[in-house]
Amino acid sequence: MADLIAQGDEPQERWRRTLPQGERVTMGRCSGAWAVPWDPHISRRHVELRFEDERLTVRRLGGSRNPVFFHGRETEQFTLSPGEHFVIGGTTFTLAVQRVAVTADVPPPLQQQAYSASYLKQVPFHNPDHRIEVLSRLSQAVSGATGDGELCVRLVSLLLAGIPRADTAAVAQAEGGPVRVLHWDQRFLSENDFAPSERLIREALRQEQSVLHIWQGAPPEAHEAFTAVGDFDWAFCTPVAGKGCEGWALYVAGRFAAESSSANDVREDMKFTELVAGTLGSLRQMRVLQQHHASLRQFFSPVVLESLSGEDPEVVLAPRETEVSVLFCDLRGFSRETERHAGDLMGLLHRVSRALGVMTHQILDAGGVVGDFQGDAAMGFWGWPLSQSDDTLRICRAALAIRREFAVAAEDTRSPLAGFRAGLGLATGKAVAGKIGTTDQVKVTVFGPVVNLASRLEGMTKIVRAPILLDEATARAVRHKVPRGVARVRRLAVVRPYGLDTPLEISELLPPASEYPLLTDEHLSHYEAALDAFLTGRWPEAFKLLHNIPPDDHVTDFLTATIAQHHRAAPADWDGVIALEAK
Asked: pTM, whole model, 2 decimals?
């Protein structure tokens, strides 16, 4: 493994990056991870690099403005050995082949001291302007990093820039296993490998505060045997708190000036590193929360997300039994549209996606949770993770908005939704909601009989020809909690679903009269009076009352057809229940 070290005119103009074996990489002022942004004499794409067989080949690219110097001469292509360097503009690039291995064999320090964050906070900076200027770049370093590897490169460069007395800096990690060095760099090239102290890193992580080791004055044989002692008089390690940097620690090592050898000399450096670690932990935690927030956005409405923002996700998403209202929505017309547009399947896929998008948008917009997709159907629910007093109103608004969008699209042949319809089933009851699944696949959803009931109701919409059907519990809640200016309910029938023994009273959810004038409140009263007569076996009376309903109300046909099949006379064993012969 070999690294390329770039060093500009200023201490902070520096990075150390590992060269990929056998791959070609482009380096320039704007070349991703291999960018050298501080040097205006370097072109956007200046040289091509290839490391192979412990040697680095450098080739100047056409279009680069300034020359590349190797051994003091302008050269278009050349090969470096470890320890050699080349120069472009004001930046020197050095090939370094060094190994890094955390060692547990470092002898005990002559002095060990732990420093809490509150103590270091009181240590004054003698040159605060420089430290603050370096710290100001940390936020950009975190936000601009494309991954953990690039972030560690930027952190190490920032530590060396902010701690002039440091010879080496590293980012280490110990998360339930061996200590690993994620990235490291040293100010001056050395023939020795880098062997940071495992004891120091683990002690800092154990105490959750900065720990300083001083080896100056150790026996001469120890200086020869251990790099961590031989090259350095001191080293300290500062843990990084927060879930975004689990097990991370910042490791800094250096030598005392000739006239000084006190722990007090590095307290400022530890304070700076503590500030870096604290800011890094906060920024990374914020990013984790943002990513978590983004992942939940596909399930939860903004209102629910805002309410959950300060909660532990694992606690919030844990499955629990609760009362929920479930909306099951199925796309109708898919098979017919597939046959008609078999030559444009991608276009059909786009239209189906738009249709599903209508469903999910209205669920989320009404404060619900998107629980599942099943082919061309979507399921949403209310009552978890928050139970809101107006959940019934919310599910009604969502269902009616979905019905409305598909109804409007049916009138416009140019709409992507033209040719599609939607059937919706709404049910209320106990269920288990939360993060449910196996070790291989987990999703936020709801589980229980109420989900199957909502699905059954959606299937019945095709039989009774009503766009939205409700179970008895939901219908009762709508009557008590939802103003008629928002939604209306009419009882349709008592049915025995196919394959089940228990009768079920089904109702229809309707828009307000102002939006759906086909059926006035008087029409609904006539229908329910007809239903009462139907249930008690007074079928001639029911048949007569049903003729007061406009003929364009196809739902009425469900009762009318049943009465007509029996010649307007209820069977001798009539119990008021219509047995459905299909799902």
From this structure: 0.55
